[in-house]
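The protein record quoted in full:
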Amino acid sequence: MTFSLHRGESALLVSMPHIGTGIPAELQADYQPRALAVEDTDWHLDRLYDFLPALGASVLQPRTSRYVIDLNRPPDDAPMYPGASNTELCPTRFFTGDDLYLPGRSPPPDERQRRRDIYWRPYHEALVAELQRIKAVHGYALLWDAHSIRSRIPWLFEGTLPTLNLGTANGASADPSIARELQQVCQAAPKFSHVLNGRFKGGYITRHYGSPKDHVHAVQLEMCQVAYMEEDSPFAYDETKAREIQPLLQLMMTRAVSACQALYEN
């Protein structure tokens, strides 16, 4: 199995598409040696979101690194952010812009297709099935796509990111009432800067599955890693920082679920 799925009892499904760290042994010789440390992982999100069982959330996590395939990119590899630096479905660069593979070893089309079949398709089939199950039980679903990233990556964006980067695909993936609730929670915690639909508006998962007319609402949170860990190797988890931001994350998710539920109470 290339992913794990915990089924909860609430209307909330949390996807963590970049938490995986595995690179299959048969592929490792193609990468730059540095790649085996998988530095661009969304580190420790399972630990940071350890309150999800208390929320009754379903949780979907891959085991394979984004260096093998990016589960938050479309299967046709269309750029998510035209005009900006983008990583591909099968990435060929680190977030620094350096080559991920040794010269001449990046995956050819047939290998990219193989990876779609083995890793990408099962994850998305599981995501679709769980959303359908949740909708059948509750009549609606809230998909929370959880991410984290270093606060400064010049190849991808200028300057320093806000701590909390909320994305609703410019309002297309979730009802405006959900975004308003999230912004109100963030505004009440001014220590942590935030933005809605800034540099990160939501990737493929948010944009593709968020469909308010079908009672499925999707939000992406891209959070700066400095809020809960060391951003440089060895990427250590910082328990003190984490304990400070965890209640805010839990409140955001609780309020988002409540806002979603309120849309269908009558």
